[in-house]
Amino acid sequence: MTLQRLDSSALHQWDRIAGRPVATAATRAGRPWRAWLLEATRLIAWALLVASLPFVALVKVAVVLYQRGSYPTALALAGGAACTTLVVTAYAAWAWHRFTGRVRLALVARRVALPLVVA
After folding, report:
1. Full pLDDT tens readout for the chain, 119 residues
2. pTM above 0.85, yes or no
3. CA 62, CA 54: separation in Å to the nearest integer?
4. Which sequence spans correspond to the domains of the chain?
């Protein structure tokens, strides 16, 4: 014999404090598509942020070096490209570590990040 879950506000408070999702009548009624949509939106927003960070680093560093540092255009762009190379190297090192379990930073920078930034 299985016992039914008690519908008590104290249990809801405990679930909220413990960090577990609280099952309400609305969530039990069948709105899983909202949870899926929220998760998909979060994933897309995170992917856009991660994908745009190298470009933002390139432009922001180059502009700051050009305007505030009074560097020539070529040096400002080289500084932005160097910063972008660091960001892409960090991404590639993270991915390399996830796939292989170890990180060879010089190899990742030489074979992945530098060609990507130069291209």
Report:
1. 676 665 667 667 767 777 766 555 555 555 688 888 888 899 999 999 989 999 999 999 999 999 998 899 999 999 999 999 999 999 999 989 998 888 888 888 888 888 888 88
2. no
3. 12
4. 20-118
